[in-house]
Amino acid sequence: MRQSEVKEFSVEELHEELANHKTKLSDLKMTHVLSPLENTSEIKKIRRSIARIATEITKRELD
């Protein structure tokens, strides 16, 4: 998810997306432990999306 996409969401939607991404990351990590993923870069992409969303939430709370 790109930063420009994150900025378009409302705060409630950001919290929902954050929860969804954290769940997806957890699932990917668990799947990777059981059997190697074909595309391990997906974990990196999800982690970075989580960081972008969390940063945007914090930024809006400070404003």
UniProtKB/TrEMBL annotation:
This is Large ribosomal subunit protein uL29. Keywords: Ribonucleoprotein, Ribosomal protein. It comes from Psychroflexus sediminis. It comes from the Bacteria. One of its GO terms (biological process) is translation. Belongs to the universal ribosomal protein uL29 family. NCBIfam families: L29. GO terms for cellular component: ribonucleoprotein complex; ribosome. PROSITE patterns: RIBOSOMAL_L29. One of its GO terms (molecular function) is structural constituent of ribosome. The gene is rpmC.
